[in-house]
């Protein structure tokens, strides 16, 4: 609760300091400037909490949202719910929109607002002087700010870059300062983005305090957050170095795969066995379940439901995922029946509220999946198959994994299946198809009953230009130097 209160206070103070730039440079009597707002280490700590508060990949509701919503609605894991009033239909049908409230606007705006907030607090750290233990604490705060700035830049690259493998493709705007409102910028290249991101992460690793008490809790950014993010970046840029397999093993040694009971508890926010980092959501925060429900996870309330196709896969394998992800109040009339009410249970509510759950952003399961893909890309096909089977065994899955994959395509196809099941509704599916789909010759292919629920399109090729989001109209209007993505 203390963290939540500090977040509110910071955002209020920051809004005052930002508004003076938007209106006038004339200093008004009694105006709260950044110099006045930040005078001590405690002030800087409150600033850090505000940066955490700004970052909201799980935000949205009632047919709009950020990256968690985007990966669900643009992929093949959703259908219209029985309570639907058309929520999400435009996005499901890939109707191009990049105005205020659209997916492209929401993701871009949220990441750059978070980057701006982080840069403001980093600027304060550069102005203030600390010594002794306060300097150690200030460096630990700086490390977290650099790490979240790197994360936000990386996510902009993921969504707004046409080709990860081309170093000269336009990606994000590298921002390590607070711009003037009159400034305009072209986007940097992917190569420049990755260099910038890695510099932030490497610097952060030199600043963390291993003895800081926050390291014991997954709601705080730590060295392991940075290691994990490096693995995600490696997959995206195509770095299959065996050194990354070693890094994955280091993380798995500290974060074992959850047991059946621990896994169920994780989604109820009572177990963190395999959680490396999560966004804390408490009383008063928006509930992530409101991306799918009007009020709470339960019958008659879901305007978005699990697709029949995903349900069929989970139902066939059984185990912990079937229990954790499919609400027990669901009604299955028959296989692929349009009357099926398939209620999403990945965010079942918690002690904080019936629609509120922490967003588990980084888990050991994903590390296991990254490790398997890296092994496959190094022709370690038997090892990759073993790694996937370990995850399936931990989940109590009845899906059989071959003793060894016969080639890379077979391996990637099976790993993509496992990623779809394990990481559903966590902001991965659409990005996975964008990244691996061209290699396998697959795009989004929806069950006919699922797409009929939206009267929508069933197939979207991975070569479709809409697999790269548009630069939002608000950015185009205010930044005359920026280039729009092709065909928008």
UniProtKB/TrEMBL annotation:
Main localization (coarse): membrane
One GO CC annotation: cell outer membrane
Compartment list: Cell outer membrane
Keyword Signal in record: yes
InterPro entries for this protein: SusD-like_N (IPR033985), SusD_RagB_dom (IPR012944), TPR-like_helical_dom_sf (IPR011990)
Cleaved signal peptide residues: 1-23
Domain RagB/SusD: residue ranges: 350-488
Source superkingdom: Bacteria
Domain SusD-like N-terminal: 36-208
Keywords from the UniProt entry: Cell outer membrane, Membrane, Signal
Pfam families documented for this protein: SusD-like_3, SusD_RagB
Family affiliation: Belongs to the SusD family.
Official protein name in the record: Putative outer membrane protein
Provenance organism: Winogradskyella psychrotolerans RS-3
